[in-house]
Amino acid sequence: MFRITAFSDYREYSPAARRRILARIKADSYDAVRFRIDRAMTEVALRRYDDSFMDSFFDDAAAVGIKVVPSVSFHTPPWAREAELSFDEPETWRSVQLFLAHVVSRLWRRKELAFFRILFKPEKNPGSDPAFRSYLAGKYRSMEDLNRALGTCYRVPEDISVKDAVLYGVRMKTELRLFQHWNYERKLADLGNTIGGISFQALEHTVFVSRKPELPDTLSALTLLHEAAESGKAYQIHLNPVSGTADAELALCAYAAGASAVEYGDHYKIPAPVQLPPAPVRRIAADKDLLLFLEKYRTLRDELAVPAETGLYRSLHTQSLYKAFELPKDLHKRSFRSWGRALTASSIPYRIVCDGRELPPGLKLMILPAAAALEEPDAERLLDFVLNGGTLFCEGGCGHYNGTGAYLEPERRFIAEATGVTEHPERIRYANKRVKYGFGRETFFLNAGEFLTPYLPVKKFTETVAPLNSGLDLISQVKYGRGRIILCAPYFSALYQEKRNAELENFVQHLCFSVGVKPPVRILKTPGNAVPFLRLLKDGGHRMLFVFLPSMTSRCELEFPSGFWEKRTLTDLYGGGRLRVTQSGGAQRVKLKPPHKKIIVLYE
């Protein structure tokens, strides 16, 4: 994992000044420096490129001995703005690919190259009518099928326009959002293939994650970085501006999540002539332990993976539906991240499953967080998972719409068609703030959303877990094949993103325990409520455990299954301390003596 900073104003400096600044970046213990190569400033005429700045920057970096991350962007050159109106035009896209191929061909043999970075933003690529028509033609067999699905009245494909979404309503708007995502991913793949055809040093995608307000603490960092890692692309974490979490701690969160690089803010800009009020830039002091750790173990975790038996479902169709309705809050995204935080806080590993993809093998529990829109193939995959022995936990109105945003009557929803259990035809306002959930011998009082859609119990088939009244259930449970489906009308995760809730975290643990999912590590003793966050990675013969201890922690003890560690003494790769593994009651235990920085990394 690289530590990177940016040098965005390099064109404003003389060659001597550029080298002085690059030397200062090198002295500040950064591995690489990023600078932008933009098509608008490089392609001076059709297929004619001015590479002078690009070459001189690499020469300057070579002189001071620092790596370079070229950040390639694709703004239209001034001479082509009238001719190139959309990336969907074949000639325009061909020019973009040729520009990228030229840059990669010129730079990939340079020793100073770290990797390439592509800057290609979806909002800059709304899509053209021909591309939209092509997308719809691949999805619908006929104009009749298209009109029936989207509520439109087209006669021929040439009548279709992206502007029609405003006229035809939610279903057309949802389909347009899905097309734009598909079109973006397709073009991003084209650019990645362009690089890959010339050089293997490619970073296909960059995820910018700011610490304010999204990353105020370690729990948020671990959750969001895991979300980025599960996207299936190479990614980079952008740590700017600086706020709540310590720099070394956040960098190690990124390392644990498999980030390709950590980028810190651009502190090497020309100072403005006036600063009102004065705002001195805070330099990030290099943490010596972090630098030594990254130097020695930069690629150690590359072959390790998260050993998960729990899945968390993410629905692009539901997010597109919320955008089509133009709602101020995306309930699915909030609920998705809240469940992710609760699982992370409980030290339960999980995989993220996106719609349109097969479920990973080995899952025992799948959580659907307010997934309002589901396509039929995705619903069938989920039901097959339950049929073969899995447990499906459905929160708050799952499957109320199909994949294109068409509202489904209660009896046509996938749960109803599979089990016969239907929902009440209308949402109701729930007067109580909390729901009593009896789980075995345990009882939980969980926050509920203001509105919910209760279930109609079916005798002989459903088990009422939490009733609303004599004829309606807040929570039902139904057997299906060798598995079961838990139907939960309230949104238990609605308030968790703003404020941690120990009751929800305890509920998540019991839910996982009930289906045979057990955390690979148990936290036995911590003073007060200072519970550490754990992240475990493993393969067939190796395991790596990250322990992030709260600042007030004075002691902690962890329990592992017997045989988890082969050695009796473990070394903390980050702090250098040694920890003893003891055997107790058929399990292994490790007592932690928290170091000053409250971070421990164990590896075997």
Give structural notes.
This protein has a seven-stranded parallel sheet. It has a seven-stranded mixed sheet with strand order 11-10-12-13-22-21-20. It has a five-stranded antiparallel sheet with strand order 23-26-29-28-27, with no helix packed on it. Mean pLDDT is 82; it is low at 202-215, 240-244 and 276-284. Helices cover 31% and strands 23% of the residues. The protein is an alpha/beta fold. It has five domains: 1-119, Alpha-Beta Barrel (TIM Barrel), CATH 3.20.20.80; 129-183, no CATH class; 205-275, no CATH class; 310-514, Class I glutamine amidotransferase (GATase) domain (Rossmann fold, 3-Layer(aba) Sandwich); 522-603, Immunoglobulin-like (Sandwich), CATH 2.60.40. α10 (247-256) links the parallel β8 and β9 (261-264). α1 crosses α3 and α9 (218-229) packs across α13 (331-345). The protein has 16 helices and 30 strands. The protein is flat, with a radius of gyration of 27 Å.
